[in-house]
Amino acid sequence: MAGRQVEEAGFAPQERAVGRLTEVYNARKATGLRSRTKAERISFYGAMRFAEYAAEWKAGQRDLGPASVRHLDSLLEHHMLPLLGSRRMNAFDHKVVEGFTRSMERAGAGLATQANAFDKLKAILLDAHRLGLYDDHPLTGVKPPQYDPKRAVIPTPNSCGRYARPATTGSCSSPT
User: pTM higher than 0.70, yes or no?
Assistant: First the structure.
């Protein structure tokens, strides 16, 4: 009997074994389906140009007000699309993002504009990262432009007389 294997008898262990095998089979099948779906998604969106992806991303931003949409359109048109519009989405990494920031600096874009464009690029690439296009987020390790606005002082109606006359009528009454 030393060479013989002992088989388990009874219905309960066999039922548990079949249940466990079914569970493993279903998990592998689901993983394969998810892998295939993810691979198709990566193939489709990875080959897409940044301009197309940004347009699709923008269409999904339903919470933007009219002023925010105009601001986003301006950033895309004047800063992001000229530099990144033709780049394929699967070709982004931290060097591309750093190059984008340096290009804006060389072009003389203000720090506020650089920071805003960087934030929008970050949001778009985060969306692509969530889709699974990147194993590592393309902004990992990239230092964003540092915009530090000075404290704004809003004049009161009483202090308007100390400043130059307003260009439009009705914005401040002149001191009498």
Answer: no
